[in-house]
Amino acid sequence: MELSKSHLNNIKALKSAILQSRYHAAALVNKELLTLYFAVGKFISRKIEEEKWGAKIIESLSADLQLELPGLRGFSASNIKRMRLLYESWKQHSVISPTVLGQLQVIDLEAIKFSPTVSVQLEKTFFGLSFSHHLEIIQNTETLEERIFYIQKTASEFWSLSTLKNHLNNQTFQKTGSLPNNFFKTITNDEIRQKALQSFKDEYLLDFINIEDNDEKDESVLESEIVQNIKKFLMSLGSDFAFIGNQYRLIVEDEEYFLDLLFFNRRLQCLVAFELKTGKFKPEYMGKMNFYLSALDEYIKQPHEQPSIGIILCKEKKNKVVEFSFRDFNKAMGVATYKTSTVLPAAYKGVLPDVETLKKLMD
Known about the structure:
Largest sheet: 6 strands, mixed
Strand order of the largest sheet: 3-8-7-6-5-4
Number of strands: 8
């Protein structure tokens, strides 16, 4: 089939841009690659808008590029469509040279000054993420604020693609900073308080845990599952946490007391105690946690460290009960909930049989 002059020009423009990108310094490969994909995305977006391109033309472009550049990877028809998504997701929030694609047959990478304008910090982290990371964020976020949150977290905490997916599924953005707490009363330093608010979530997804209903009353089972999967639990908490130990022994007046889980947070420079509860939150848990934190600050905390923080991690809670329970305590505490892989998504309730029915069917 004889190709039209317009189609040949399109192939030529894309081929030139790809080859031009390959010659840039290796240290800037990711930035150059994202810039290239952004430029190609704009090229495709404008062609679709002005020349009413359809899926078949993009598939043809992809196939012909493979012929022009044997062994070329990353320019499948589906990937080219994703480049368009990258462009259209960031075009309103980026500096883009007005000369780029001034004529539809030219893609001049030297003229491109593509960079996010939302903040200086974002510009520093944006190009540290792979194209796959950006796509995952674009496709699973709704607001610019949410998108920026995941970009900065991925860059600063070196999230792998699977870790990023886990945080997106767990709605980390929505849950960060929403933890019921008494930090405003107990943490007087504004900077440290803000860091503390950002360090904890209202709910943690422990999808690596699988406990039977008849075991849920035993906190030791939950603790054992977490310790056996401590790396995954740390990923759920965030990169600033270091695990010190479980059943951490405290001795007060010759009597032994044992904390479920003890961590150190490098960003906050303080000990963080977790008490695990498999049932509903109860007000009396506060008194026990306050006691543990007092003992940690008296006997374990180093002089240069900040006062300890306690998190009660339970199966469920009522925020008003938690709010009343916080009153009159002078130690920084929060109450979070967890969910495990045993929790059936609402969309599947009534569609799949429950656990008891499945057991009967298997007997």
